[in-house]
Design goal:
Rossmann fold, single chain, Dna Ligase, domain 1, 15 helices, D-amino Acid Aminotransferase, Chain A, domain 1, 3 domains, alpha/beta, four-stranded parallel β-sheet
Length: 393
């Protein structure tokens, strides 16, 4: 296999799991980052090559030139795999230029951005018959009256551009409990030049969050899929998954595949749903259009999405596959789950006994791998350094 796999973003465990998924299949992996700092995924024995590029946001054009220059020197076009939303945005913006040198599943320029943008996704969902939480834009007439009538408090103030919002506020959204807090949140977003929407909270604890993880081929048809059930997130209630189990939910395939195929999506994608605790109805919350946090869990239950992507793009697609049973395997990001457990117990949302019982399940670890331990030791060093710095501050 002459086609290399170029992996963008290796300072997080998504890049690490992607590298392992490909490296175990004998694929030459190329780790690309703008800095060596905290890039613990590159310590993996499955990292074949290491490159430092210009910063994707601060020097975007130089970054694109760097990628094109690298690809032009290869005997076969590499497969390009972004492991962070910010890289996806850049790929989408320069899709035509990059596709001349790289193998990329998506063919419609702008579709990645459209599905990542909360407001555009909301509109797409409505047009295609997908249930979404009631949402208001900030330019609505009589906005606060409409919030009182349609949305109710507490409600969510969510960014349309999540990566930028998170980089500014270090959180995914604002949860507000009354009009005064809503005004304050809107003002903060305005000052930071961030576009936001106001959304109803679907009732239900964090274990009412589900995912539909799928691969769509070049005909925009779902060929591989897995469904999962989140149990704990960090930050709690509105954060990223830290403890999630594979769970077969056929209804999510029916809803999710229909939507994704109707919008012509290609490649890997994850739909996050929330099940209404009162009605049992599934609502679309967001789409992740890059390899997901849960990638190692998906790999462990038998669906290797990075390799599926690689094989199809290099002309040897793998046969379709879906996990249609419960495996009782869970994804576990231990460090952040400990922080989440602390907060769940402190707020009375979970009991100690429930947590202890959950920890006995078989796990797909976010970082730890007995056969590839160096990234975990590197990550432990990074965390220790942060703790020491905080103590001495």
């Amino acid at each position: 296999m002459n086609n290399k796999a170029v992996i963008l973003g290796n300072n997080y465990y998504i890049g690490l799991s992607t590298m392992r998924c490909l490296g175990k299949e004998g694929i030459h992996t190329v780790a690309v980052d703008y800095s060596n700092e905290n890039a613990y995924a590159t310590k993996s024995k499955y990292c074949s090559e290491r490159l430092i590029s210009p910063h994707y946001k601060e020097e975007t054009e130089k970054f694109i030139e760097f990628l094109i220059d690298y690809a032009s020197k290869q005997s076969s076009p590499p497969v390009l795999i972004p492991c962070h939303d910010s890289y996806v945005e850049v790929i989408d913006e320069y899709l035509d230029e990059l596709k001349a040198h790289y193998l990329i599943p998506q063919t419609e320029k702008g579709l990645y951005t459209k599905t990542m943008d909360k407001e555009m996704l909301h509109q797409l969902a409505i047009e295609n018959g997908m249930a979404v939480p009631e949402t208001l834009g900030t330019n609505e007439e009589n906005l606060f009256e409409k919030v009182d009538e349609k949305i109710k408090y507490p409600c969510l103030v969510k960014p349309t551009d999540s990566p930028t919002f998170v980089s500014i506020f270090r959180r995914k959204l604002f949860k507000v409990y009354n009009r005064e807090e809503l005004i304050d949140a809107l003002e903060k977003a305005k000052q930071a030049d961030q576009e936001v929407i106001i959304q109803r909270i679907i009732p239900g604890f964090d274990d009412h969050m589900y995912t539909f993880d799928a691969y769509l081929n070049q005909d925009a048809k779902v060929t591989h899929w897995v469904t999962c059930n989140k149990y704990r997130q960090y930050p709690i209630n509105f954060g990223a998954s830290v403890y999630t189990g594979q769970k077969y939910v056929p209804e999510l395939y029916e809803i999710g595949s229909k939507f994704l195929e109707s919008i012509g999506f290609k490649g890997f994608v994850e739909i996050e749903f929330k099940k209404d605790a009162e009605t049992g109805k599934f609502y679309l919350i967001e789409l992740n259009v890059r390899i997901t946090n849960l990638n190692n869990l998906l790999y462990k239950v038998g669906v290797n999405f990075p390799y599926i992507t690689y094989k199809e793009l290099t002309g040897n697609p793998l046969p379709p596959k879906a996990v249609k049973r419960d495996t009782n395997l869970v994804f576990w990001y231990a460090y952040e789950d400990i922080l989440a457990i602390r907060d769940y117990i402190k707020t009375g949302q979970l009991k100690v006994g429930e947590v202890i019982k959950s920890l006995f399940k078989s796990k797909a670890h976010a970082i730890w791998d007995l056969k590839d331990p160096k990234p975990a030791f590197s990550y432990a060093g990074i965390i220790t350094g942060k703790i020491v710095k905080k103590i001495f501050k």
